[in-house]
Amino acid sequence: MIARPHQPLLRVEHLGMNHVQRHAVTNARLIVQAFADVNLTIYPGTTVALVGESGAGKSSLARCLALLEKPAEGEFWFDGVNLLALYGRALFPMRRQIQMIFQDPTSALNPRLTAGEIIAEPLLIQGQGTKAQRREQALNVMQQVGLPRKCEGKTALEFSGGQRQRLAIARALILEPKLLILDEALSSLDIANQKMILKLLTDIQAARSLTYLHISHDLRLVSRFAEVVAVMHGGKIVEQGLAANLFAEPQHPYTQELLAAMPSLESICQERFA
């Protein structure tokens, strides 16, 4: 059993969001449901995994929780603050508390900026420190994620895939957030880089008392790092609980299907060496 603080860091109840699309022929306005009636509670210092098939609504929910999109209904509390009651500049100081790391760091990082400028940019946007202070903070965070200070003048395209994801992590950490949302942040990496980035995230979490929400479809990977797992299907969270319990005794039929489809080590070896 995980020892949890009394107050959750993030709590959403009956959260729902829609996308507005246009019909290709008639140009009629269409409302498409991204997710509905989502209930999720995340406690400080824990690692929660959100799993499910493509199109289940995981990334839409992640963007909503990262304050990149606004929900259509429900309640959203973060660190005791009702975020849906805040608008405009009132949300500004809250945005730094929730940072997001995307699947593809190449498209998420500005190719025109140097590594040092990419990491320091959030401080500039938030109006923090002098140029020299921002640079020094950026260099310190670069070292923390395993990038040499001498690389500050390189552009994102001059780094390898694993290094670019480290750069994205550094950019997210510079504002000292409380929650990191990782949207398939490991899926584009090879197995060796996955292990290194996962260890880096684990070390950073311990050092900074961070809270993680991992969006993933890889149950084998989830089983290695998640304390709590929430399963999303058809725009709704159909099951959630402690990872050990959920993997041992899944209750929802969809969760059972997911786990049944997860390849075992034996089946992987048979397929590879057949």
Layout: helices, strands, pairs:
Layout: E1 10-22, E2 29-42, E3 47-51, H1 58-65, E4 73-78, E5 81-82, H2 92-95, E6 98-101, H3 105-108, H4 115-126, H5 131-144, H6 161-173, E7 179-183, H7 191-208, E8 211-216, H8 219-225, E9 228-233, E10 236-242, H9 243-248, H10 253-261, H11 265-273
Parallel strand pairs: 3-8, 3-9, 6-7, 7-8
Antiparallel strand pairs: 1-2, 1-4, 4-5, 9-10
Helix pairs in contact: 4-5, 4-6, 5-6
Report on the architecture of this protein.
The chain has 274 residues and is α/β, with parallel strands linked by helices. It has two domains: 185 residues, P-loop containing nucleotide triphosphate hydrolases (Rossmann fold); 69 residues, no CATH class. Helices cover 38% and strands 25% of the residues. The chain has eleven helices and ten strands. Helix 5 crosses helix 6. It is globular and about 55 Å long. The C terminus is likely disordered.
